[in-house]
Amino acid sequence: MSATNGMLDPDDSVILLIDHQSGLFNTVRDLPVPDLRHYVTAIAKTATLLNIPVITTASVPDGPNGPLIPEIHTHAPHAVYVPRTGQINTWDNPLFVEAVEKTGRKTLIIAGTLTSVCMAFPAVSAIQEGYKVYCVVDASGNWSKLATDATIARVAQAGAIPTDTFAIVAELMRTWNRPEGSRFAQILAEHVCPEYKCLMESYDKAQEIAKNGPETNLDKYQ
Fold first, then answer.
1. Which of 3, 4, 35 is CA-nearest to residue 134?
2. Cα separation of 25 and 27, whole Å?
3. Tens digit of pLDDT for each residue in 18-63?
4. How far is CA 21 from CA 11, 64, 112, 130, in A?
5. Which of 118, 135, 193, 198 is catalytic?
6. φ/ψ of residue 7, rounded to 5
7. Looking at the predicted structure, is the pLDDT value of residue 129 above 80?
8. CA 173, 176, 177, 178: dihedral to nearest 10 degrees?
9. Percentages helix, strand, coil for the chain, rounded to the nearest 5?
10. Which of 82, 99, 186, 191 is the most exposed place for a label (fewest CB within 10 A)?
């Protein structure tokens, strides 16, 4: 049995964040754009914590598609940006494929906007080249839910593994029993599941009470 038990291996993974551009975000209707930005940020932060290579690219950023959202390179300063010369499928760009090959890794974690194009096309092409591909659907935005549902079916039929941001973060971190455990918790609380932050706050308060006693002395008023 593999040491990863069928889970993602951080040491064999490379993250591809494709066309998360401010102009294209105006076409996203299958999830709230603020959520999409948060999920992409969570992936960028996780990549930095685990030193996982990140490769980014943008489709005609000097046109209406706009620039990449700044959160990606802010929170993953090690990310490598690869320019394109008009290719819609980023896998048609030899420089992009070369950047992936240079990592020496064979597991691709892909997110992109639009889901049915920027995420799906390179996913299908990379599978044909022998890569194992995970498609992070909620860190990708699309023009309709119907298009997203059709795309999930398409990439799954091609051999990709559809997944979500929370699953990717948890699968890559593997265990809370690590020095960065609390930092992963912060990523989840700040960018993926705000309700988790409420849980953390309640736990911190319980710990404070256990250490210092209750804040409210009910006996005082009896």
1. 4
2. 5
3. 999 999 999 999 999 999 999 999 999 999 999 999 999 999 999 9
4. 28, 10, 9, 28
5. 118
6. -90, 170
7. yes
8. 50
9. 55, 15, 35
10. 186
**The pair of three-digit structure tokens given for residue 189, joined into one six-digit string:** 């609380």
**174-186 pLDDT tens trace:** 999 998 888 998 9
Average pLDDT, the chain: 93
**Ordered DSSP codes for 166-185:** HHHHHHHH--S-STTHHHHH
| Residue 109: both structure tokens together | 């974690």
Q: How far apart are the first and last CA of the chain?
A: 64
135 is catalytic: no
pLDDT per position as a tens digit, 3-22: 678 899 999 999 999 999 99
CB-based contact 184:47 (threshold 8 Å) = no
Give burial (CB, 10 Å; 0-12/13-18/19+) of 152.
Answer: middle
pLDDT of residue 1: 33
> Residue 134 is inside which H or E element, if any?
strand 132-136
Place of tokens 């997110």: 111
pLDDT at residue 147 tops 80: yes
Contact yes or no for 107/100 (Cβ under 8 A): no
Distance CA 112, CA 105 (A): 20
- Global confidence as pTM: 0.91
